[in-house]
Specification:
Largest sheet: 7 strands, antiparallel
Distance between the termini: 122 Å
Radius of gyration: 42 Å
Structural class: alpha+beta
Length: 799
């Protein structure tokens, strides 16, 4: 008796099939290959393609039951290391030049991972800011900068010492201390210390000044008898550091160093000021603070040597969890008068309060993991490419983003620790000045750094989407005209800086926009953009002003700018022409289209499988006894091209009692599963019809499958066995296996022929060059012989 005649029971078949997916003959497949309600084998396929019937082993021609040995692996550790290494597979770490399929897959994988990183980065960044910050800053601005004092002016309009004291006595105190309601009732003690009744004043405000020493500058001999004192502009080495002890209850006349105040330098409108000085803290109540300011006013706290006064305080709004660190600055230059400036920094120093904040915290952890991932990735690329790694602009951009991200992570940890310590110290000493100035400064730098990182991260998208001609136009144009632009930039800035210095020297004493070299430089850029005030130039110098303006507009606007545009336009036209004759390295749309067609073909094979099984249920019961035994089932499906293993597996799944016969109830269960699967397929077909693609049967559509390279998916090779057994029963054409092999051979042949043709072209080009050189030498020799002949004729025959 042959092996085909002796078969195990259905229960034994189910057990054996579930334990050894390689033990089947023909085309071994796991037990769930015909499980129409089971889990999906391929997550990339639609729901109707679950548990596909394609083989998981190499294709075979016979249908005999012969065990196959699974492929030996290199061990768990090698699998783990190779899988771990594949996490950092990029186009720079993998050899993808000769494999378009791998190149596309690697590019898509990099792009998807990077887009996830970009989304996380944007969530973290935009989670730290909101439009509420702007409105909070505006409210504080309006209160302290635009409130009118007794003289009719505001902080913005301070021009002398008298204006400063008017501001300090009224608008400043009224803004800091809200001790009555709008109906003039007193605010309860527990609600004191709130600005606008909502913003908690942290600690007490502080007033600090810096002075220069008497006779810190030299008076000319002609004026020494008239001018007895001289006070220079501010410089740290000219600071007045003397202290007076006559004001026992006030600290405003005691000099304190920067280390004592735990201060930092400040870049003002005129110069940079140190963090030291004479400090006077106000109190938590309005009346005592008013007494302090009156005392400072009466005792001439601000003197001729005073060069700057700072007013610092910090408020916190618990409603929106935001701090506003305020610094009002009035500089007193050596020229006399006063120059006001200000800084309002609205920052979120307490990061994690609400549910949204903790979601941002989770995103921050993911962000840190991404940074570690990219650090490893860049390390692998550096190890492989060595110094040539730095030749790519994108690699340098990667390093910049990683460095900025690391700095931001470190500061984030530092800020959390410092804020906690400062708040504890503030709660223990509520009557002391709360110095958040330095912390808010670095928080602002942190915000700036993360903003730059987001900018570079968005720019880096061009690295991944430049996979066709359209996406590379910008980079190709800029790269091709880089040398021309560099030469133009040298010429442009020579002329531009010449006009900058000329404007500064001509109008610097009268026009604010030309008051220093920096202002003059940016003013000329504004003129290019059409933002200028011609009347100021004309008023400063009625002759040279208009001449300067016309010359600048003519040389820079009409000549240089148009030269710049001409360089860009010519290069762009050249790039467009080159790209019109250039074939794409690969088209992402073709890749997706091919994947779509593979999906459609698999869907069609699935439909044909269901139809075959339905026909077998209908026709296999030859004696019409509503009892379908295994031999009837096997013979019908064998004629339809199915292997013994898959026939056995499907029968064993529904033969619940193991009697090798499908009774009426078991057949109904199988039919019900088929109907469910057919409904799912119909939904998929409806979806395909909406997209304008109604697939035919698998027998008709299999010829449409295209494999353009040697790197086809493993699933294609694995699936080829069953497909060949099924498509081989068509009335014409070749089997699917033969078609796949032949198409790949043709692809390899075309690739080889293309290489040969390119080499032949190179040889022909060289031969043509040699022929031209030979003709040129022949022509040169002819000219030499002609000249020799003429000389000989002239010497011997000319009379």
């Amino acid at each position: 008796m042959s092996s085909k005649d002796v078969r195990p029971s259905s229960a034994q078949s189910r057990q054996a099939w579930g334990l050894d997916p390689y033990a089947s003959g023909g085309h071994a497949r796991p037990d769930n290959q015909f499980d129409f309600g089971g889990p999906r084998d391929d997550p990339d396929l639609p729901s109707a393609m679950e548990n596909d019937m394609y083989a998981d082993s190499e294709p075979k021609r016979n249908n005999d039951v012969s065990p196959t040995t699974p492929k030996k692996s290199g061990g768990c550790w090698s699998c783990f290391t190779s899988g771990l290494r594949s996490l950092w597979a990029t186009r720079q770490t993998e050899e993808t030049k000769g494999n378009r399929e791998l190149h596309v897959k690697t590019t898509l994988r990099e792009l998807i991972i990077y887009l996830v990183f970009l989304v996380i980065l944007c969530v973290v960044t935009f989670g730290m800011t909101s439009t509420t910050m702007y409105y909070y800053t505006k409210v504080m601005n309006d209160l302290f900068l635009d409130t009118v004092h007794s003289g009719g002016g505001t902080f913005r309009s301070i021009t002398n010492v008298n204006d400063f004291w008017k501001f300090a006595k009224k608008p400043l105190l009224d803004g800091l201390y809200w001790e009555t309601w709008y109906n003039n009732e007193n605010v309860p003690n527990e609600q004191l210390g709130y600005i606008y009744y909502e913003n908690k004043l942290l600690g007490v405000p502080r007033i600090r000044q810096l002075k220069v020493s008497t006779n810190s500058c030299q008076v000319h001999d002609d004026f020494k008898d008239v001018i007895r004192e001289c006070f220079d502009s501010y410089s740290e080495n000219l600071e007045d550091k003397t202290s007076e002890v006559s004001h026992a209850n006030y600290t405003g006349w005691t000099y304190q160093t920067e280390s004592q105040l735990d201060g930092s330098s400040y870049w003002g409108m005129l110069t940079t000021y140190s963090g030291s000085g004479y400090v006077q803290d106000l109190t938590g109540r309005k009346n005592t603070s008013a007494e302090t300011i009156d005392y400072l006013f009466d005792n001439l706290w601000i003197q001729r040597g005073t060069r700057v006064v700072f007013i610092d305080f910090t408020v916190y709004n618990a409603n929106i969890n935001l701090f506003c660190v305020v610094r009002l600055v009035v500089e007193f230059p050596a020229t006399g008068g006063a120059i006001p400036s200000y800084t309002f920094r609205t920052v979120k120093l307490i990061r994690y309060v609400t549910v949204t904040d903790y979601f941002i915290l989770a995103c921050e952890f993911i962000f840190v993991m991404f940074i570690v991932y990219y650090i490893v990735e860049e390390a692998i690329e550096i190890k492989k490419h060595k110094l040539s790694y730095l030749k790519s602009m994108w690699n340098i951009l990667d390093i910049v983003v990683i460095i900025i991200a690391i700095l931001c992570i470190v500061f984030d940890i530092y800020r959390t620790i410092v804020v906690d310590n400062k708040l504890k110290e503030l709660l223990d000493n509520p009557d002391k000045y709360a110095d958040f100035e330095n912390l808010s400064y670095w928080q602002t730098r942190f915000d700036n750094a993360i903003a730059i990182a987001v900018f570079f991260a968005w720019i880096k998208i061009f690295k991944y989407i430049s996979f066709n001609k359209t996406m590379t136009q910008l980079s190709s144009t800029l790269g091709k005209c880089a040398k021309d632009l560099a030469g133009f930039a040298v010429m442009f800035f020579i002329i531009f800086l010449a006009f900058t210095q000329l404007g500064y020297l001509l109008f610097g004493t009268q026009v604010k926009d030309f008051s220093n070299f920096q202002n003059s430089f940016f003013t000329l850029f504004r003129i290019i953009l059409g933002d200028f005030d011609f009347h100021q130039l004309e008023a400063a110098n009625r002759i040279l002003g208009p001449i300067y303006f016309m010359l600048f507009v003519f040389f820079v606007f009409f000549v240089l700018i148009n030269m710049f545009l001409a360089i860009i336009n010519d290069t762009y036209s050249e790039v467009k022409g080159d790209m019109a004759n250039q074939k794409n390295e690969f088209e992402m749309t073709d890749y997706f289209k091919r994947g779509y067609m593979k999906m459609v073909d698999k869907l069609n094979f699935k439909r044909d499988k269901i139809v075959d099984i339905q026909k077998a249920l209908k026709n296999a019961d030859i004696n019409q006894d509503k009892q379908l035994d295994f031999e009837e089932w096997r013979q019908d499906l064998k004629t339809r091209g199915y292997a013994d293993g898959e026939i056995e597996a499907l029968f064993a799944k529904y033969d619940m009692d193991g009697d090798r016969v499908l009774d009426e109830s078991e057949q109904k269960k199988l039919q019900a599963d088929l109907n469910k699967e057919q409904d799912a397929l119909n939904k998929e077909y409806e979806h395909l019809e909406k997209s304008g693609n109604r697939p035919g049967t698998a027998r008709r559509s299999s010829s449409r499958v295209s494999f353009n390279d040697d790197s086809g998916e493993d699933s294609d090779d694995e699936d080829s066995g069953t497909k060949s057994s099924r498509s081989g029963r068509a009335s014409n054409g070749v089997s699917y296996e033969e078609f796949t092999v032949l198409s790949r051979r043709v692809d390899r042949m075309e690739h080889s022929i293309g290489s040969i043709v390119s080499k032949i072209d190179a040889v022909l080009v060289k031969l043509e060059a040699m022929e031209k050189a030979k003709l040129k030498r022949r022509e040169t020799m002819g000219k030499i012989l002609d000249s020799i002949t003429e000389d000989y004729f002239d010497r011997n025959y000319r009379v």
